Amino acid sequence: MAKITMRQAISQALWEEMERDPQVFIMGQEVGVWGGTYAVTKGFYDHFGPERVRDTPIAEAAIIGSAIGAAMTGTRPVAELMTINFAFSAMDHIVNEAAKLHYMFNGQMVLPLVIRTVGGGGRQLGATHSQTPDAVFAHFPGLKVVAPGTPADAKGLLKAAIRSNDPIMFIEHATLYQVRGDVPDGDYIVPIGKSTVQRSGDHVTIVTYSKMLELSLKAADELAKDGIEAEIVDLRTLRPLDIEPVIESFKKTNRAVIVEEGWKSFGVGAEISAQIYEQAFDYVDAPIKRVTQKEVPLPYNRDLEQMALPQVEDIIKAVKEVL
Amino acid sequence: MEKSEHLNLYQQMVVIRILEERSAELYQQGKIGGFLHLYIGQEAVSTGLISARKPQDRVITAYRDHGVAINCGLSAREVLAELLGKATGVSGGKGGSMHLADVNKNFWGGHAIVGAHLPIAAGLALGDVYQKQDGVTICMFGDGATNIGYFHEALNLSKVWKLPVLWVCENNQYGMGTTVERASAVSEIRLKADGYAMKNDNVDGMDIMKVREKALEMIEEIRSGSGPQFLEINTYRFRGHSMGDPERYRQQEEIRKWQENDPIGIYRKYLMKQKIASEEELNEEDKKATEIVEDAVHFAESSPEPAAEELFKNIYVEEGR
Ligand SMILES: Cc1ncc(C[n+]2csc(CCOP(=O)(O)OP(=O)(O)O)c2C)c(N)n1
Ligand SMILES: [Mg+2]
Predict the structure, then answer these.
(1) What is the C-alpha to C-alpha distance for residues A152 and A168, in angstroms, rounded to an integer?
(2) Which of A110, A152, A263, B9 to pair with B224, CA 20 to 30 A apart?
(3) Looking at ligand 1, which atom is closest to the CA of residue B115?
(4) CA distance A216 to A258
């Protein structure tokens, strides 16, 4: 066990998997000579060489498309999209190919593919570079969508993703790379499709994931000062969604706040609250609340951007409203 | 060309240079956020190119857009104010460095998704053709952008529909840290236009007069109905891709060599050698440029932040507009 950053945890997972399995290689823009735009693959190019650490042209469709092809021949590519905003340039290959091929050809084709990418706002990058469209990707059966909120989960889930035989979107958060946490050494695997309780409490259930876990934990600490104990369920995987721990917690607290960074309309919170109403209607003591980004493209100006993004205070307020 | 026009172009280049240097400082002071891509080293490209356009000619570019904005006639004040996210910025502080635009000056932006503005450029030209206007659309993009599908779709469409576009590749030798050779099947990028049977040429982007001359020739041919043309302009960015670039991918020696061909120095020498302007006159322009930028810094710093209600404005077009 060591206290390391999210960046180091992800880097470690990639490194160890590449050492373990020669079929694993990485490709993407600036992953090699540059060392990764978020410095995740620093040192990889010198150690593993240009065959296994492949700098690509700026060509997202070609990156994902060719990774799909290579994956179907038995290699295990980890294809990086510099940010999730550029995934839209590869949408056909993610949605119409990666998510469909195994099913459509009745299981003949197998694509052990990881698409590593980075989402989230809060860095004043403007409307096109700050999105959190996780729910968009979670919409498609055939694709798995993973979004870790702690360094340990990042390592364990990435290793699981690389060993999985399904196409997986692995969504990191741009403002979590510096976050530190205890991470088990060596072969540490966190199963994909398993939610987890990150904090126990009896009064309210907060359902969240990725960056919003950090904010929810802060809100819970504040609430505890007022004697309110929040239970926090971290989804970790959006598809396949593991709703059990959410329902279990809700049956105990009877109240829920769902916190996500993306937009409210048709989002993660919409799905979670619908499932709670479907599966635990008799336990509902208050309308479920959602804390999300305001329904605007994110502006550049710092104050406006922060106004649009969910804040710790918003979570505290929502919790107090459902109590 | 009139002397006053030369001095005007020279001043534009110096304004861009100083504005970029000041922006870098403001970025380091935390007054500019997000990504900041400087145009230092490439000033002759857009200054020469855009000096060749007529008012009806549209300009569209990528995120490395501060210089292009100045050349299109936006003031240093409104550019810097946008960089600082102020209400007085060209995009009201909502766009930032990568998203400058002023459609009244026929400058259609600053676009941050690599290559995405190329099909849009084809569309601007389509709009002109459809409405029987004689404008030419000047579309600028980097070498790296020629490797994405959008580039090829846009070139093909423009040729098939004979759209009045001047495609301009600013080949500054790198897309982030990747050299042209490592990312593009052909290093001489204009050869890609051959695949679409499109007339193409290249020019030294450190020499404003050469850029201007070539651009004038191509724009007027396009206006006369030649269909789209392609111009590769060779240049170099003296700074990192954006602020905070560790620049592990290139040697200081290489940067120094290119800096010997400083586009502002080259123009200065030309103006003096041709006896168009004296050293004193050029120094005077440098002084004026410094004043313009300092005034802009003051303006931007003392401008108000956008009001909170701006957050929800312009998501959709207002009724009755
Ligand atoms: C579709 C897409 N992919 C990746 C990026 C990230 N990115 C921004 S600039 C850039 C390099 C572009 O290089 P080039 O076109 O040569 O322009 P230059 O920066 O040299 O002016 C990359 C990869 C992006 N903005 N959009
Ligand atoms: Mg370039």
Answers:
(1) 18
(2) B9
(3) 1
(4) 10
pLDDT digits (tens, 9 = 90+) for A128-162: 999 999 999 999 999 999 999 999 999 999 999 99
A interface mutation test: which of B94, B147, B181 has the most A CBs within 10 A? B94
* Residue percentage of chain A with pLDDT more than 70: 100
* Contact call for residues A83 and A130 (beta carbons, < 8 A): no
Classify domain A2-183 at the CATH topology level: Rossmann fold (3.40.50)
Give the integer Cα–Cα distance in Å for A45 and A250: 47
Whether this prediction's pTM lies above 0.95 is answered by yes
pLDDT of the residue at B282: 98
Spatial distance between the Cα atoms of B205 and B43, rounded to a whole number of angstroms:
9
pLDDT digits over B197-253, tens only? 999 999 999 999 999 999 999 999 999 999 999 999 999 999 999 999 999 999 999
The CB of A89 under 6 Å from ligand 1? The reply is yes
CA–CA min distance B166, chain A (Å): 22
Question: CA A254, CA A285: separation in Å to the nearest integer?
Answer: 5
Q: How many CB atoms neighbour CB A291 within 10 A?
A: 27
pLDDT value at residue A67: 98
Chain A residues inside the 8 Å CB shell of B96:
124-126, 300-301
Domain ranges of chain A: 2-183, 196-322
pLDDT (average), residues B78-107: 98
Domains of chain B, CATH where assigned: 3-307 (3.40.50.970)
Using the structure block, give the residue that is written with the tokens 């000041």: B22
Q: What stretch of H or E contains A76?
A: strand A76-81
Q: Is the pLDDT assigned to residue B320 strictly greater than 90?
A: no
Beta carbons of B74 and B105 less than 8 angstroms apart: yes
Predicted pLDDT of residue B45:
98
